[in-house]
Amino acid sequence: MNSKRQVIISSLFVLASQFTIGQNITIPIETRDNATCFQVDKDNRLWNVYFGKKLAKKSEYEYISSQSHFSDANAGKYNSAYTPAGTWNLSEPALQVTHHDGNPSTDLKYIGHKTFNGKNFSLNVIQLADSVYKINVELHYKTWPDVNVIEQWAEITNNEAGDITLNKYASANLFFSGTDFFVTGFQGEYLKEMQPSEEKLKQGIKTIESKLGTRAMLLGTPNFILSFDKPANENSGLTVLGHLAWSGNFKMEFEIESNKNLRLIAGINPYASNYQLAKGKTFVTPSLIYTISENGTGQASRQLQSWARNNRILNGNGERQTLLNNWEATYFDFNETKLAGLVKNTADLGLDMFLLDDGWFGNKYPRNNDDAGLGDWQENKKKLPNGLGYLVKEAQNNKIKFGIWIEPEMVNPQSNLYNEHLDWVIRQPQRPEKLYRNQLVLDLSNPAVQDYVYSIVDTLFRKNPALSFIKWDCNAVIYNAWSAHLQASKQPQSQLYVDYVKGLYTVLQRIRAKYPSVDMMLCSGGGGRADYEFLKYFTEFWPSDNTEPVERIFLQWNYSYFFPSIATDCHVTNWGKQPLKFKIDVASMGKLGFDIVPDHLSATDLAFCKEAIKNYKSFKDIVWHGTQYRLASPYENPYASLMYVNENRTNAVMFTYLHSNRFFDGTVSNRPIKINGLKVNMLYTVKELNVYPGTKSSIDENQKFTGDFLMNVGLNPDLSLSRTSVVLLLTAVD
Ligand code: DGJ
User: Fold this and answer.
1) How far apart are CA 243 and CA 435, in angstroms?
2) Which of 166, 218, 487, 606 has the fewest CB atoms within 10 Å, measured from its CB?
3) Tens of pLDDT along 214-224?
4) Pocket of ligand 1 (CB under 6 A)
5) CATH code of residue 94
6) CATH label of the domain that carries residue 552
């Protein structure tokens, strides 16, 4: 699945010493503060015996299992490290295999384990094998100790005499001993992405999953907060933030077993996805990535954000481009002159790049609305008589960059592509087509389609080497899942969902091999795609088409549990009745962009806009690369407050918004908000930014406060009905 990963692992086997082999072995896997621990029993089965605080004395891990006696007369033991199906286990399995002779039984025994230490991570590999059938399972635990992050996946190898079928092949099977567990899932729909919903788990299985085919998100997301003993809290409590790094159908099952402990099985959704594994081949599952905090969601998300910036997101520590996007400025209604005007506006505003959105292509079937043209990636001659090249040049003349929107995995039935390559389209040949946004999905399990999708990007870059940004959209889900390619190549149709995603990763790997650093935004009919497998190839994602700024405060708050602001694209649009200042202040908490017609702004708004962009550029480093603190939750207050602090803790930006005036009595700011992340003994000044022309800040920028004061007493941003958003810059003065 991931060739790079396989290269690392195989060289590790050559380099590392032999596997440790034997019975009654204890295998603690530690991060800086926490540990999970495995133990081998007398029958050579592997059990997960601990999840919690790291023990001071390593030799004591051995005694953990002797202190608990959990077993059930019917289901046996629940804490298998990778629960097999068809033998001793009756609970939800992690692995269910049909062997080459049709036998459905699997029992995994411990073979050995070893550890490899990298620069800032350790990789622990535990090898298991079935004692009757020749399949091996390697459980991989990659830990980044400093940020308490564990990335976990499984590799299943078929050494049998023939092909086997993987019916269920989870990435991770975790076990938490305890009594009260609270899980927050993030569900929603178009324009309502990432809505949190927390519940106390009761006996049985709570499932968070998706079956949309092309996109993990929309209705459900592959993210969760798990909190022990009490509901999730920002600053206290044992908390796990988890994320499945897979861009297709996923399933996460939280099972409270009969002893009230929690089992978690997470991975690719087995729904309609039996996978045939050929003799001699290995299936690498996607990763479950999780971080553990003993101080609530605040610390957990700072750990995950830091991990993501340093280890996962493409160019996670680098720069990003502010932009003007024409989608909401023009929709499909544009021509070269209009766009050239927007290019000029982009430069005048002081932004880095102009992004041309949907509608620039298709001739026989022009893309003048969303029912035609997808698949025909030639410039529309009527709208762009001089091609993209002319606009790219216009951008260069204006000293800005140029970016472009594509949706290369899709096709409209009204297109040349559909007419010429019906066999490339996912559809049931004998049934009526079911369209989603008037379009269908191309079959990325087919290598010819992969070549075609790659060539769309490659051709754009070859013709326009100065292109500096791609917005990669994906609006449709997979209905009528059926692949002409799998049929012709005699592979099971049940591989389509998995092979679609693998095919897409293959295309992205090829694109990144040739174009390693160009910025790319993940977009999916709003926020349908944001996961840590995709973000190896993308620099950022689009959280939602809902840009109403109050909704955005909540949305961005929820995304921030899992993703850093450098990857979160936030645009100012015409949505919402709030003043422009409020909109820009909200969008300034992520990567700032605009989707407006600057010529429609009043002279004062325009002047303010330019000033706010200048200010953003002065503090963007802190927002993109700093540490984020969620100070006041919009769910608990009529206001919200967040801040970002730079690495040396000498500079910070604090954003505060009044999002509701229900019960407003004129005293919203009756109490200070406690700041976080500063140096106790350092002196700071506080200066208000983005002050709208004609208004005066009520913050005294000459006053100095110690970090001690700001963190223990707090700071009052002085919100009121006439000051609904306040941006404060804290600067160390000694
Ligand atoms: C859906 C995206 O979310 C929008 O931002 C825009 O790019 C449209 N697609 C274009 O069709």
Assistant:
1) 30
2) 487
3) 998 788 899 99
4) 327, 357-358, 405, 473, 475, 523, 525-526, 542, 545
5) 2.70.98.60
6) 3.20.20.70
